[in-house]
Amino acid sequence: MAAEIVDWYQSEVPAIVPDAPAVSEQVTSVEDSLRQVAHCIDTGDDPRRLDMTPSTVLIARSGVQRGIPLNDLFRSVRLAHEKTWHWMFNQITTSASTSEQSAALELATDYMFAYADRILVQAEHHYETEREAWLRGTAAARAAAVDDILAGTEADPQHASKRMRYDLNRHHLGATLWLDPARDEIEPQPALNEALSRLAVATSAHSALVHPAGSKATAAWLSRGQAFDPEELDIAHLSRALPDGVRLAEGEPGWGIGGFRRTHIEAGYAHRVASLLGERASAVTCYRDVAVAALASADGEHAVAFVKRILGPLAADDDATYRVAATLAVYLDENRSPARAAQRLTVHPNTVSYRVHQAEQLLGRPIDTNTLDLSVALALLPAIRGLADGGGAVAAAQPRR
């Protein structure tokens, strides 16, 4: 039911589920609330005395930081209330005896309206408390300046630097940090703050700027006066710097106000591709490695159809076939050198050659045919599961601009 309710949010109040992390947070929040309702009914507690679940409090507070109108949050509560009440109505009318239905429906109606009223009152309290603190702090002015830069309405680096109290005349590295969805036991903010601190050390950054991206994700910039060393941005190096359970997407480094904007947008696209990859994604996703997939997956349905048409049986979703396709992708990327491909894949060159032959058999044609289409389809292949299974919301989510 939680998943169905959040699916409804995507069509009715899309502002509260703008990206994959927000969808995941909402599913957790709604599920926690449904369990609270069920437990309260089971024990006979008074719904007027309940407190919002911690996950729902996080949604209310982060809504301020993400610029979500309070009316949209209220609407989401009413939609969840409506969906839950209809479910209870169907349960009662199909399972209760005729003599009990009237009383049961009256109890269910009174209960659900009391619960919804309690949640709305508390949501408003948490939202307004956070809003007052937000407006009082310098964070609001900084966030507004960042939003203007990303929207392209602030182009003066000196004026923007003054508004942000952050020097834009530097080299910037855009990053998006989030928690592995499977690691629910990790406290989000302490883990993300620790990860950002470690990344700053690993990249020898002189300063860092954080921008709200939800209760379980953080958008950030690392900056310094000198250009970033490619070795410091190596995936293996950055992976070692991350705490367990934290994931990173990074853009290409850029200088000045233009580079500040571009590297953030690229990190957002890398994050979207990592979300599509799911369990196939590594701890660190660099935009330069997934740029083709990011561009080609903008239309999810079209991308899936393209991959299946170009790859045919090579697009099968089993591990053995995927391993063959991944080997072919590396082989082509290494200018058809079995030795270099083998070094990247840590296998024997003969293994690379054998898998390339398998790929050609599955394709039913030599790999010299339609090489551009083939390379693009292979770049998209890791994301096809996410695009096909639930990529509608993920693929449609665009990096914040």
From TrEMBL:
Domain of life of the source: Bacteria
Domain PucR C-terminal helix-turn-helix intervals: 326-379
Residues covered by the RsbT co-antagonist protein RsbRD N-terminal domain: 1-142
Domain CdaR GGDEF-like: 156-273
InterPro entries: CdaR-like_regulators, CdaR_GGDEF, PucR_C-HTH_dom, PucR_C-HTH_sf, RsbRD_N_dom
Family the entry assigns: Belongs to the CdaR family.
Designated name of the protein: Helix-turn-helix domain-containing protein
Organism: Mycobacterium paragordonae
